[in-house]
Amino acid sequence: MTFVAEKLVKTFPGVRALDGATLELAPGSVHALLGENGAGKSTLIKIITGVYQPDGGRIVLPDGREARFGGPHDAQRAGIGVVHQERNLIPAFSVAENIALSAVPKRLGFVDRTAMRDIARRCLAEFDVRLDVDAPVHTLSVAQMQLVEIAKALAVDSNVLLLDEPTASLTAEEADHLFTVVRRLRAANRSVVLVSHKLEEVFAVADTVTVLRDGRSIAEARPLADYTRDQIVDLMVGRTHQVVELTRSDVDVTATPALELSGVDTAAGHRDVSLAVRPGEIVGMYGLVGAGRSELARAILGLDRITAGTVRVHGAPVRIGSVRDAVHDHRIGYVTENRKEEGVFLEQPLTRNIAVTVWRRIARLGMIRRRDEEDLVRTYADRLGMRIAGPAQLAGQLSGGNQQKLSLAKWLAADCDILVIDEPTVGIDVRTRAAFHDLIAGLAGTGVAILLISSDLPEMITMADRILVMSDYRIVGEVANDHRYEPTSQAVIRMIHAATPASA
Amino acid sequence: MTTTDLDEPARSRFSAHTTEFTLAGIAALGYVVLAATTHGSVLSGDTITAILRFLAVPMMVGLSQMAVLAVGQMNLSVGVLTGFTAMASAWLMVQVGLPAWLAVAGGVLIGAGIGLVNGLIVVFTRINGFVVTLATMTIIDGLRFGVHGTGTYQHYSAGLVALGQGAVLGVPDVFILAVLVAVAVAVFFRRAALGRQLLASGGNPFAARLSGVSNDRSLVIAHLISGLLAGVAGVITVALSGSVNATVGDDLLLPSFAAPIIGGVALAGGVVSVVGTCLAALIVRLVDVAQAQYSINPEWVDLIIGAVVLGAVLVTQLRLGRRRRGR
């Protein structure tokens, strides 16, 4: 009678996202699926719901059949409903049509609107939500959209319902309604999987728990009552990480910060963000996916509007209106998270990739000499230890790690003394990763101020002098990093878990 | 970030309807200005009949383009396809000797068939529809001349031409036909399950896939409908003019984009407006009428239409930007 996803393996280029994860769901229970950023929760859910196909392992349905899902619809037909973390609604469609989308009631090929509205009202009523079912979804608030997503999952008559961070944008009251439905589903002998980083709600509604770490399930379908909150945090964080010692010189804490934000609000939704990065200092910014870290970086770089507060560069208040300002006037560089799409021109030679930030400077009478560009490439390839065939090589032909170095070289060439580095080692193998950490530490040693954004806690603890914790577009605390993994990681995780319920 | 902000949503919901009201207003105003400045010549029954008669084809090519925009695609072959189907149905009558109704049906079917091929190429090669239809546009352009070289077909079915010239109480037959087709397209996108699936694919392909909608099928069907409507435009042209040659359709590509874009159809897909597209076609038609009435240099007409298209896109973008920031 149980649903089992056994020893699932899923590899993406450069990353083993799942490495033998098992999820076992008993009917009539609420199961918590927990794990750190990048532990593999979302990948696991996407496999179970047919979005990804596993590279190994098997899925056995409650009726004993082994499942092969060719796509999401197969999973739905097998009785698996899901609320994904990303919004998956059709903006121009009405609430009713979105809720009924996977099984639109039809009469002679035409949509039966009356029946559709009835389905929608029934699903919304299940958790006491009242919405105008004829309103187009794009007119709703984020929280209302979330409610529509949940109603949509309920519309599919499913034995297994997966909720991936369902309360992320709900008020406490709306979340309560949701959990009432969850309990009702449990009473109706369904299995509900709850993915959430809010441990309070997990302990309030879940019966059993599976904890993922590094793509493996390290606690499999255990009764939640056997654990305390601290024990769960310990399991999530693990003790396996060795912190690599990096040679770092001390930061002059009395120096004027190279970059300082005080009371900054942004159009993206940040409130009252204050931080300071001194020359030679690496300040880490940690948070869960969606906490607003990259968005803050974008605002600093002039890609999004800052609506209140002041930004100071080397003590002087500045207004950065564009990346051009940031680079040329304030020498702030942004090594993007998304190097394939934002950081590197894959179809272009290395020369252009590195020189793009300094064309204005190396141009003579408006013309750029190839020799100058090639010199730049040699200088920085050498300095960063990039393995390249020659300056004319295309960026797309480099390995992931070397591409990442390339996106860093560009900013070094621009002579930036403030660098915002976003997720520097995602999708990079362990060895390159260590080399990269050395490199960043070396840059800080030369006096570059570095704001490091990472969802990788071990990386954060290896690299950062201080760790700022961001949650829900606010900075909720700061942890002085003594480079000891256990106490620091637990302090950070606790800060996140303490912060979220209050802000809901 | 927080819960229910009803103010902003209410406004953007309203604005979806205002596009059509605005267009109706502009059309009415334009007509009144035309009437006032031409001493009422556009008020005569004959002129009104003429305006509507030559509105039929722009409406059809606009809707043809709209059908692929619905799924986030473009069809550059709409114009030449209209010309090709016109030549093909004339050929069926003149050379093959088919009765008019069979030739008309044949023209429409050929249009649908070529649209189907466009769609299949897009789906199976995964090449962007813009590129695919750019290529098929060139091929169809060649085919258009292949039918009868630079020659002209005329003296085909007298009945068909009479239909093209005919009117019921001053309303041209071809315009009535175009309105009927437009109503069918509107019903398809608004009510038919298949039409809704097309819009779901255009609005959010990933969400559509999660809900069991086949995006590939949506693409193929959108291109098929686009071809079919171009076929309808082709046979209307045959009925209207009494003679056709291989240059038919040369000037239809811009109008095919102008009508849906001005009409509020989202270029990214997922949102269509049949009423908006038809009203926009009428506005473009009025610009043509104005050109004739004031004897303006015809080149100015393209300039005006181009500027209006650009303006319409700009307005849409500003509106979208505001909505996105509201989140």
Outline the secondary-structure elements.
The complex is a heterodimer of chains A (504) and B (327).
Chain A (H helix, E strand, L loop, with lengths): L2 E10 L2 E11 L3 E7 L5 H8 L7 E5 L5 E2 L4 H6 L2 E4 L11 H6 L5 E2 L2 E2 L1 H14 L15 H14 L4 E5 L7 H16 L3 E5 L3 H7 L2 E6 L2 E8 L5 H9 L21 E8 L6 E5 L4 E6 L5 H8 L5 E8 L2 E3 L4 H7 L2 E4 L3 H5 L6 H6 L3 H4 L7 H15 L15 H14 L4 E5 L7 H16 L3 E5 L3 H7 L2 E6 L2 E7 L4 H19 L1
Parallel strand pairs in A: 3-10, 3-11, 6-9, 9-10, 15-20, 15-21, 18-19, 19-20
Antiparallel strand pairs in A: 1-2, 1-4, 4-5, 7-8, 11-12, 13-14, 13-16, 16-17, 21-22
Helix pairs in contact in A: 4-5, 14-15
Chain B lengths: L6 H31 L7 H9 L2 H14 L8 H17 L5 H26 L3 H20 L3 E3 L3 H8 L1 E2 L2 E2 H18 L2 H11 L1 H6 L4 H27 L1 E3 L7 H10 L11 H21 L3 H29 L1
Antiparallel strand pairs in B: 1-4, 2-3
Helix pairs in contact in B: 1-13, 3-8, 3-11, 3-12, 3-13, 4-5, 4-6, 4-11, 5-6, 5-11, 7-11, 9-11, 12-13, 12-14, 13-14
- How many separate helices of chain A? 18
Poorly predicted spans of chain B: 1-15
Overall spatial form of chain B: globular
In round numbers, the mean pLDDT of chain A is 83
Low-confidence stretches of chain A are: none
The pair of chains with the biggest contact is:
A-B, 39 and 33 residues
Intertermini distance of chain A:
36 Å
Q: Which structural class do you get from the secondary structure elements of chain B?
A: mainly alpha
Structure description:
- The complex is a heterodimer of chains A (504) and B (327).
- Chain A is α/β, with parallel strands linked by helices.
- Chain A has 3 domains: 3-237, P-loop containing nucleotide triphosphate hydrolases (Rossmann fold, 3-Layer(aba) Sandwich), CATH 3.40.50; 241-331 and 416-504, Rossmann fold (3-Layer(aba) Sandwich), CATH 3.40.50; 346-414, no CATH class.
- Chain A contains 18 helices and 22 strands.
- In chain A, strands 6-9-10-3-11-12 form a 6-stranded mixed β-sheet, with helices on both faces. Chain A has a 6-stranded mixed β-sheet with strand order 18-19-20-15-21-22, sandwiched between helices. Chain A has a 4-stranded antiparallel β-sheet with strand order 2-1-4-5, with helices on one face.
- In chain A, a hairpin with a 6-residue loop joins strand 13 (259-266) and strand 14.
- The longest helix of chain A has 19 residues, at 485-503.
- Chain A is globular.
- The two termini of chain A are 36 Å apart.
- Residues 1-15 of chain B have low confidence and may be disordered.
- Chain B starts with 6 loop residues before the first helix and ends with a helix.
- Chain B is built from 14 helices and 4 strands.
- Chain B has a domain at 42-253.
- Chain B is mainly alpha-helical and 327 residues long.
- Chain B is globular.
- A two-stranded antiparallel ribbon of chain B has the order 1-4. In chain B, strands 2-3 form a two-stranded antiparallel sheet.
- Chain B has helices at 7-37, 45-53, 56-69, 78-94, 100-125, 129-148, 158-165, 173-190, 193-203, 205-210, 215-241, 253-262, 274-294, 298-326; strands at 152-154, 167-168, 171-172, 243-245.
- The A-B interface holds A 49, 51, 71-73, 76, 82, 84, 88-93, 97, 101-102, 104, 106, 109-111, 113, 135-136, 138-144, 169, 171, 174, 267, 269, 472-473 and B 1-5, 9-10, 12-13, 16, 191-194, 196, 199-200, 203-204, 206-213, 266, 270-271, 323, 325, 327.
